[in-house]
Amino acid sequence: MGAVFGIVAAVIALVGLVVALGHVGYLALLGNAAKKKGLSGGTTTDYVNSRWKVAGGTAGVALLGLLLTAGNSVPIDLVGLLLGGGAGIYAKQALDSTRSRFRALP
């Protein structure tokens, strides 16, 4: 039973890490596009620079959660599941907030 819970916890933490890294990647792409626009992309660059701490923090917490699931203890797997899953949920909300702010309307 403990091995199955460990696998489930690892998968959830891995998905959380992927979502957090998706947020990091989206900010990188958005920042790159804003830099190419020069002065007209200044406000976007400022916004992206202010969001790096959130993106890096969620990615770090999700990575910690994934590393914790590598153990053989169910309580530690539970902590890893909560950290990885929680970081993924928070990163998804932050990504949705960023996307809705810069969504191009036709």
Automatic annotation (TrEMBL):
The keyword Transmembrane helix applies. Keywords: Membrane, Transmembrane, Transmembrane helix. The chain crosses the membrane at residues 6-29, 50-68. This is DUF3784 domain-containing protein. It comes from Pseudonocardia adelaidensis.
